[in-house]
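Something for you to look into today, if you have time. I want to see for myself how the chain folds. Leave the record below and I will have a look.
***
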Amino acid sequence: MPTDTKPFFRDQKAVNRPAWLEGFAGLDWVALRASPVFYGLGVPKGDRSAVIVIPGFLGTDLYLREIHYWLGRIRYKSYLSGIGRNADCLDVLTERLLGTVVQANKQTGRKVHLIGHSLGGILARSAAAHRPDLVRSVITLGSPFRGIRSHPTVLRAASAVRDRIARERKRPNRPECYTGFCECGAVGSLAKPFPDSIAQTAIFTKQDGIVDWRFCINDDPSTDYEVAGTHVGLVFNAYVYKLIASRLSAVR
């Protein structure tokens, strides 16, 4: 039976995170290239299974190319998400991601691993909940899957995305869209116990300048990993890469 019992908070609140710290994300990027981990040294090697990386809110696969190529260097078959810009209805994005999951599963003949950054982690958990038969593990990087607790700027951007979705689909604006109150399948899956057949890992930083880290952790503390760094820099963080290699190796 699923054992993930920590609640999902449907209410949405702005939080005063130290957004100025995100200006140091470039240091994570520089430090990564100085680390042996980036070159595949000192980490467990992969087993050629599929790993899909998923971008965060407003992002595309483009900024995930470092981690994408790194996964290939440590002998995984890495896939970009193929969802386009992460600024659409979450159900639409989940369906696109599931298309990549099905493709990766067919090409490798094995269950796939999902790594999602920020909102990409929520999409990863949604896809896994929809198709647990195809997913082996989910690793989230600064993903507020326990409830929307974000910097006010992020909430304003989400409101703008909601308005654009309504215009493009020629439908009345739904105020619950892009909030924890939405009744879509993607948000609904967050309120349900996570399938216990899927290994989960939550990586977070208390210096996060975008979301409240306390809403980015699992029910099982043994699967939560704190790192030093920024929210944006989680995808360029050498220690995060080392954790990912270790966790992927542990769930073969």
